[in-house]
Amino acid sequence: MILTPYQQNDPLDQAVLTIDLAALIANYHWLDKQAGKAETGCVVKANAYGLGVGEIAETLLEAGCQTFFVAQAKEGKTLREVTKTATIYILNGLPIGSAAWLAKHELRPCLNAPAELAEWAAFCEAEKQAYPAALHIDTGFNRLGFSEAELAALAEIDSHFTPSLIMSHLACADMSDHPMNATQLARFQNAIKHFPNSKASLANSAGILLGDAYHFDMVRAGIGLYGSMPYSDEKQGQRGQQKQKAQHEQKGQQEQQGQHARAQLQPVITLQAPILQIRTVKAGETVGYGAGFTAEKNMRIAILAIGYGDGYMRQISETRPPFAQAAYNGTQLPIIGRISMDLLAVNISALPEAQAQRGTLLELIGAQIPLDETAQQAGTISYEILTRLGTRARRVYKA
């Protein structure tokens, strides 16, 4: 009996999500190098983008990271159990009445509005201690943060409050030629003049590639750590206006920069699922819900133990070519029919029968099927793909 990779693992496993921690470290060091003199903080919100905050944060600490960002206060407490010394910022700000709890766990809220600032400053005054927190300034995103009209209030902060970081967030960093980037940069440069003694942070993963002017004291590496670069070179120049020759040249340089970033980042995850059954489908027969796929000729198909219940999105389904792909030993294999909650079908006619058996693992995301391509096939972004995975898949950490 041939032991497949699946059978060598726990036979109760279905989908397996392998996280390459060495690749994570390599990506951190590459992004840190691009950031120049700026400190590279790491974003590990949403359970480290679904990959397990404990293992991911421990690895990043060993790589040299000392500042982390999460979205929610409870995520911060979980992370604090991993590290006793690192700085942890809460991006969603100060929940009502939580100042003492945050201070107890040494968590720093990113204050997003005057009411949050007033509550934090009052707590610091009552405790007679200047607990640090960040100030989030909205420079045009119109999501969280102090508006330009509220900026003047920031200059009159009570002396009991210490702004440890002034931050903002770029709306269009993945489109490097978008004029919004320069607009937000100028607004941020103006805002931080009020706080010459505070550190400043503007750039996310894509923002790191916009150049030194965007780095300030700290960058916030997120999706790039996990092997994806949200650098939309395919979107650049599509706003309906003709570029001048110099602008075309600049666009070409920016596209090369985005492609270079993708080439330098290593894939961190590999998603695989085992074959449950192999069957023959005759020409004219259909596959899956809605009978949306019809075989044009006889084919061998494999039914895999993975579906949208595992986070492999239903939108990846296509009933007409080009199909999304699975892979085995370098051979690309079309995913056919609709993806259901627990199962999907793959055309394995291109594989020799000896290579595809019950229990054989096929790759759905990884070195052969890049994460960004999967996201594009689903009509979404790599962030959403990552955060949906791992709910049922067994996580395997590779050193």
Distance between the ends: 30 Å
> In this structure, how is the largest beta sheet organized?
8 strands, mixed
User: What structural class do helix, strand and pairing data support?
Assistant: alpha/beta
Estimated radius of gyration: 24 Å
Helix content: 25-40%
Number of helices: 13
Strand content: 15-25%
User: Residue ranges: pLDDT <50 for 5 or more in a row?
Assistant: 1-7, 233-254
pLDDT averaged residue by residue = 88
| Spatial shape | elongated
β-strand number:
18
Outline of the structure:
This protein is α/β, with parallel strands linked by helices and 399 residues long. It has 13 helices and 18 strands. The longest helix is centred in the middle third of the chain and has 20 residues.
